[in-house]
Each structure stands twice: as C-alpha cells, then as structure tokens.
Amino acid sequence: MNMPLSEEQRDGLQELMNISMGQAANSLARLIETKISLSIPEITSVSPNQLNEICNTAHVYRTRQSFLGEIKGEVINLLSPQGLQEIAELMDYDSPLDDSDLNEVLLDLSNILAGACLNGFSSQLELKTSLTMPTIYKHQLSDDIAEWKTTLVMKIAFIIEPISFDSRVIICLDENSIKTVIQKLNAMLGIEG
Predict the structure, then answer these.
(1) β-strands 151-160, 37-38: how paired?
(2) What is the 3-state secondary structure (H, E, C) of 99-142?
(3) Is 185 within 8 Å of 125 (Cβ atoms)?
(4) What does R_g of the chain's alpha carbons equal in angstroms?
(5) Which of 54, 56, 96, 175 lies deepest, with the highest CB count within 10 Å?
(6) DSSP tag of 78
(7) Is residue 10 classed as helix, strand or coil in its secondary structure?
(8) How far is Cα 10 from Cα 67, in angstroms, rounded to an integer?
(9) Using N-to-C axis directions, what is the helix angle for 175-189 and 7-32, rounded to 10°?
C-alpha cells in the first residue's frame, strides 16, 4: 500500500509530532534535570525492508511497545549506548550499570519517551490509545517488524548534548490506522478528502 502525503498533510503531521515530542522531551528533561534538543521530525511512508534498514543499521539498543485503541501499531525506540551510563547516573542508578539496571534504564527511558509521544499525538487528534509495557530487543528486528507491510514512520531524535546521548522514536501504524490518522488530520486542517 502506498501512502503518499501531500505537503500540507506532511507539514501538519510534523507540527503534531513537534508538539508531542516536545512533551516527551520535557518529561525526560524534568527527570534528569538536563536540557534536551529535538531534531526536525521526519515523516515517511516505508516498506518493511526500509523499516528494517532504519532499525538495524546503527549500533543501538532497541525497545518496542505496542499500542491499541482507535489506532494501533508500535513505538520503536532506538537508544544510543554512548552516554547511557551518564543518563543512568542522573536517574540515580549506581555506576557501573549491571545487566539488570541497564535493562531497567532502557525500559524506563522508552516508557517515558513513548508514553509522552503517543499521548501527545493521540490527544491532538482526539484519538484514544493505550500503550503496553516496553520490551527490549537485543537482536535485530527483521522478522519482528515484517508485519508492517506499509508503515508511516514518524522519526525524531532526542539529543542530550553535554552527554553525547541520543534516542530515536519511531511510531509505526498499520494501514487502517494510517487512514484514520489521515482522516483526522484532514478534518483538523480543513482538507476535503
């Protein structure tokens, strides 16, 4: 399924993502008491191979969380290993991290970022969603993300510059959910569809 977006729709989604991710950044910044910068959101419609490439080309920790409701899909977090120890210390974890604490930090960060992103995104479109708990994937996601035949990827990077840490949040939607989001977006922007 091809899901081309008009320039107006793409701009509208980018604005929604900016607001949602800003809320996520604020949640994390309050927790670690450090300023966080955001990249410009990237909105693309991708195939499973392209999604696989996005998720598996860098050396990162990977988590995923499913969500259900009026739209359904997954939030994938890509977290850089660089700077994670320093982030953990800001979250009051002892140094060095053991495996159990490392997993806990990854799940905590993912839950904060994914929860704030999805809640902000859903509430702006007046959609009800419910997020499950995150899980960690230490292997590549190729087989696990093949179910997303066409994915509307909304990607943004959280950059904590003094610590050299970044995290990318990817929201994957199934085909019916993409249609629902586009309908809601068109109504919000006054686009007849």
Answers:
(1) antiparallel
(2) HHHHHHHHHHHHHHHHHHHHHHHHHHCCCCEEECCCEEECCCCC
(3) yes
(4) 16
(5) 54
(6) E
(7) helix
(8) 22
(9) 100
Contact 16, 121 (CB under 8 A): yes
Q: What is the DSSP letter of 161?
A: G
pLDDT in tens, the chain (193 residues): 455 688 998 899 889 988 988 888 888 889 888 888 888 888 888 888 888 888 887 788 999 999 999 999 999 898 989 889 999 999 999 989 999 999 999 999 999 989 888 998 999 999 999 999 999 986 666 666 666 666 777 777 888 878 888 888 888 888 888 889 999 999 999 987 6
51: β partners: none
What tokens does 57 get? 């080309």
Distance CA 5, CA 182 (A): 9
> Which position has the token pair 């997954």?
74
Alpha carbons within 13 angstroms on the beta-carbon side of residue 7 total: 0
- Record the tokens describing residue 33, joined without a space: 């008491």
Q: Which of 122-155 are b and which e, b meaning 16 or more Cβ less than 10 Å from the residue's Cβ?
A: bebbebebebeebeeeeeebeebbeebebbbbbb
